[in-house]
Design brief:
18% strand, Beta-Lactamase, 4 domains, 5-stranded antiparallel beta sheet, Helix Hairpins, alpha+beta, 6-stranded antiparallel beta sheet, 13 helices
Length: 637
């Protein structure tokens, strides 16, 4: 098994788990998102019903209003008597439950406009002073101006002069046009027919075309022919009047009236008009009320929307016949002239208002969909699963790579041990055979015996290191700690270290002051002896080619009171990126097939375990030249 193959297997394992998990999370989150969308859709529907209810209240209130309320005075009749009283619509300023009301109006069959706020007789008789009367008249003029600008009633000064020298002829021609030449019948006069064409663009276009053609024909006449046209118009008016008088004589004069349902329209000036057609005693009227668009929409639509929870997540578009009237977005309102929804938004709910406001639509567009509690749980669960999955795969890779590396190191260790055992055993066997066969003289015998002795000691140390490491790895061996003086410890170590260094051609240098020699350490003497022997053996191996073949061992007391034991050689030192790796088990910086130094890679790992087992610390630093291993222990008081 290699690390590359391990990566491939773990990648397949990760995909096999991540793909179905991602699909499940996506489906669950999508379902919760749809449920949240549906919940907001229900909220939009409920809000639309509440808005519809307010419009229904307005329609019911105005449809139940009697015909006589649109006059300043109306008749209140009982069984025995009838008397005149002021209309409830004659209050000033107008009293309405809906904001934006500009006033009520009535247009009679002659196209004349009147409002219930202006009395037909002396205003002082009704407690109205001149200042209030002026304000009432101003309100009526305002209504007249708005309706006039939308061509629903005649403006008072709307007749242009044809010839300054003939004002009487001009007046007669215009009167004739308004009565017969343009509209042809009495019911089509301006103020009646104009309201009929409000919601019928084709009729309005035909009427305007007919009016333009009629005016064009009359203005093209010569001056002498205009008198004839005027005479014909007057004759037409007299015929219509006689016919109307005849019809009235045949009717029974009663107060009966017929009222059509209310109609709604958006005027060119941007005002809303709510009107109805009324037939009373054979005469036709149009009664209605005007609203300011901004205030009307804010009261009936925007206020309800801003009070709902939808304001935080959606925009509300109020459209009339496909054109955006107003956009109310997240607690702020802006006016838009186009019918394009908000960019990037999603349609939440769309519905028409109750009749006669059915030309207006409520369009809820979702600006952002809030995350529900269930969605948050799914996202957090997905996040935790992703962390667990990624972390688990990473840890498995680390563990597998570590095991692969350990297996490789163990193979290197077996190879190193074989190498370390084979060479001295071969030498021992060779010298032993020579001594057995008597091929060596007395002088050589001593050197052969010394060689066999030293090699057997090195083999013993190697075997002891392996056995000691195996016991410590299985936690089968604990240190036998005791209080030992440094001077006593040096006396025991000196002969062993001298012999080890002398055989390798090195010399020992001890560095310790008198104060340090008097200190005592809480250690295992055998473990510390093995640590120092291993460090000296390591110094001998890696500084064999150094110019100065010396190993320096020092005992010094630090500022914090601890004792530092140092072992320094004067060799090439250690590469910086390997200084933290040399204490790892079986680690060697050289390849087993190409290495020049002997060793198994367990000496420094055993040093680290023995020192830490006694409660000390071990570190390594590069010197100039060589490298120094430092061991720290706490002094016993």
């Amino acid at each position: 098994m290699t690390t590359g193959r391990l990566k491939a297997l773990l990648l397949v394992f990760f995909i096999a788990l991540a793909l179905p998990t991602s699909i499940l999370v996506y489906q669950a989150y999508g379902q919760l998102k749809w449920e949240t969308f549906h919940q907001h859709q229900l909220l939009a529907r409920e809000l639309s019903l509440r808005i519809d209810a307010r419009f229904e209240e307005l329609i019911e209130r105005e449809e139940n209003r009697p015909f006589s309320d649109y006059q300043f005075l109306n008749v209140s009749a009982g069984q025995e008597s009838a008397f005149l009283q002021r209309s409830p619509l004659s209050q000033y300023p107008p009293d309405s439950e809906v904001s934006g009301l500009l006033g009520y109006f009535q247009v009679d069959s002659q196209g004349q406009l009147q409002t219930p706020v202006v009395p037909g007789s002396n205003a002082s008789d009704y407690g109205i002073d001149n200042n209030e009367l002026k304000q009432r008249i101003d309100q009526e003029n305002n209504l007249r101006d708005i309706l006039g600008r939308n061509r629903l009633v005649e403006k008072q000064d709307s007749a242009p002069a044809i010839a300054a020298s003939e004002p009487l002829l001009e007046q007669e021609i215009l009167q004739s046009l308004s009565s017969s030449a343009v509209f042809s019948v009495e019911e089509d006069r301006q103020g009646i027919s104009a309201f009929d064409s409000l919601n019928s663009p084709s009729k309005k276009a035909r009427a305007e075309s007919k009016l333009e053609k009629s005016i064009g024909r009359v203005t093209d006449l010569k001056l002498e022919d205009r008198y004839e046209v005027a005479e014909q118009a007057k004759e037409k008016i007299e015929q219509v009047s006689r016919q109307k008088l005849k019809d009235k004589r045949l009717r029974i004069r009663t107060f009966e009236s017929e009222i059509d349902p209310l109609e709604f329209s958006l005027l060119d000036s941007g005002h809303f008009v709510l009107f109805r057609r009324v037939w009373n005693s054979g005469d036709r009227y149009v009664q209605g009320l005007l609203f300011d668009q901004q205030s009307f929409v804010d009261d009936l639509v925007a206020s309800a929307f801003r009070e709902s929870s939808l304001v935080a997540v959606s925009d509300l578009i109020l459209a009339h016949q496909g054109n955006v009237v107003k956009l109310i977005a997240a607690s702020r309102a802006r006016d838009y002239s186009s019918s394009t929804p908000v960019e990037g938004s999603e349609l939440l709910y769309q519905t028409r208002l109750v009749a006669p406001f059915s030309d207006m639509e409520l369009i809820f567009s979702l600006a952002r969909l809030p995350l529900s509690a269930g969605g948050q749980i799914i996202l957090w669960s997905a996040f935790i699963l992703a962390l667990v999955l990624i972390g688990g795969v990473f840890m498995l890779y680390r563990l597998g790579a570590g095991q692969i590396s350990l297996a490789r190191q163990q193979q290197d260790f077996v190879s190193a041990v074989s190498h370390e055992l084979k060479t001295p055993l071969t030498s021992i066997r060779m010298y032993g055979e020579m001594l057995r066969e008597g091929w060596a003289d007395e002088e050589r015998k001593k050197s052969y015996y010394d060689f066999i002795f030293h090699e057997s000691e090195r083999l013993s140390r190697l075997i002891n290191n392996v056995l000691h490491l195996a016991r410590m790895t299985r936690n089968e061996q604990k240190p036998n700690l005791e209080v030992v003086g440094i001077e006593e410890l040096l006396n025991e170590l000196r002969p062993k270290l001298d012999s080890q260094l002398e055989n390798a051609g090195f010399k020992l240098m001890l560095d310790a002051d008198e104060m340090t020699l008097t200190k005592q350490l809480h250690i295992d003497p055998d473990w510390l002896t093995q640590v120092l022997i291993n460090l000296v053996d390591n110094a001998i191996k890696f500084s064999a080619n150094a110019d100065e073949k010396t190993v320096k061992i020092g005992f010094h007391q630090q500022q914090d009171g601890s004792i530092q034991i140092s072992v320094r050689d004067f060799g090439p030192g250690i590469v910086r990126d390997q200084m933290k790796k040399i204490f790892k088990l079986f680690y060697r910086s050289e390849n087993e097939l190409t290495r020049e130094t002997v060793g198994t890679g367990i000496g420094l790992a055993l040093v680290h375990q023995l020192v830490t087992g006694m409660g000390g610390e071990v570190d390594v630093v590069n010197c100039e030249p060589g490298v120094e291993f430092r061991i720290g222990f706490v002094v016993v008081d």
